[in-house]
Amino acid sequence: MKNDDPSAPRFPYRLAAIDLDGTLLGPDKLVGEQNAAAVHRLSENGAQVIIASGRRHQNSIRFQRQLHLTGPIIACQGGLIRDGESGNVIEAHFLPQTVAQDIVGEAEKNGIQAIYYHLDHLYVPERNDHWIDLYESRVGERAETLPSLSQLDGRRALKIVWYGDPTVLKKIRPEIAAKYREKVDVLSTESENLEFMPRGINKAAALEKVAHEFDVPREQVLAFGDAENDLQMLAWAGMGVAMRHGNPLAIAAARMVSPPGPPETAFARAVDSGGLLFSLLMPAFGNFYFAILAVLL
Questions:
Q1: What is the spatial distance between Cα 96 and Cα 77, in angstroms, rounded to a whole number?
Q2: Please, which pLDDT band fits residue 291 given cuts at 50, 70 and 90?
Q3: CA 114-142-30 angle, 5° bins
Q4: Taking CA atoms, which of 59, 125, 246, 278 is between 20 and 30 Å from 257?
Q5: Would the pLDDT of 1 be above 90?
Q6: What is the pLDDT of residues 214-263, one digit of tens each?
């Protein structure tokens, strides 16, 4: 609830970046009522709320509209910043063309399904299997098919994702990471995937760019996330908040962890239940609370 008392303490964060899968979205891949209400409370208390997702811009914008948010969307793990209303590209980073070509070829050689995040398209090869079906069911989006991804010649790839057997991907990840070291960043957001990003491009770099555009200092930036692709963003923000059910590395990178409870409402609890808005209600004890919370967690 918005506090109109001019003598009341102001909410200390002016920009809030929220991850989608595993954070804002529940296991059903929808924004629940409690999480939506928490987003609105952040806005009511003066924070510019933006989405920061590994999904495509075209896939993320429906959630921005559902929540009546405005402004930029951070998509593709920070590889793309694009205005949600005009569609104007603010910043885009692509994999080196020859490297993208090689990553596609390496997937074919290893019998792994590749998903090609083009600036304006999402491509998979015509010869695909149940792993692509699983991916599409999770993101709620159908990919376009091509006879072969090699015909794209590595052009305009924001990222490339390998999707397949978790056992296989876990086994080959060290070798693949070593092969592409100094060329791309390799990460995993689900046990069934490996993601290839331009070197040094991540949600933190994109969030820093957005914060600069809004003239918001780092210490007034909030970030919420749960996975490996959120590590840098959680560490960079003035207050990084990890979901309790999330990746242990994400939890370690954050300054705060959501209170116990169901995963689908972890975000709402982080905002409301003895969390961030707590400091507005009990300013004299706000810093003490976070210090105690950090020790207990």
A1: 16
A2: very low
A3: 110
A4: 59
A5: no
A6: 999 999 999 999 999 999 999 999 999 999 999 999 999 999 999 999 99
CATH 3.30.1240.10 residue ranges of the chain are 97-198
User: Contact at 8 Å (CB) between 173 and 194?
Assistant: yes
- Residue ranges of the chain assigned to CATH 3.40.50.1000: 15-92+202-296
Is domain 97-198 annotated with CATH 3.20.20.70?
Answer: no
Look at the chain and count its residues: 297
Q: Rounded to whole angstroms, what are the CA distances from 131 to 56, 57, 63, 115, 229? A: 19, 22, 25, 11, 21
The CATH label, of 3.30.70.260, 3.40.50.300, 3.40.50.1000, 3.30.70.270, for the domain at 15-92+202-296 is 3.40.50.1000
Take residue 289 and report the two structure tokens written for it: 């609370």
Q: Is residue 123 a contact partner of residue 104, using CB atoms and an 8 Å limit?
A: no
Question: Do the beta carbons of residue 205 and residue 79 sit within 8 Å?
Answer: no
Specify the DSSP class assigned to residue 149.
Answer: G
- CB atoms under 10 Å from CB of 293, counted, come to 16
Percentages helix, strand, coil for the chain (3-state, rounded to 5) are: 40, 20, 35
Residue 195 CB-half CA count within 13 A? 23
The model's pLDDT over 119-172, given as tens digits with 9 standing for 90+, comes to 999 999 988 789 999 999 999 999 999 999 999 999 999 999 999 999 999 999
Between CA 143 and CA 118 the distance in angstroms is 11
- DSSP for 58-125, written as a single string: HHHHHHHHHTT--SEEEEGGGTEEEETTT--EEEE----HHHHHHHHHHHHHTT-EEEEEESS-EEEE
Distance CA 269, CA 271 (A): 5
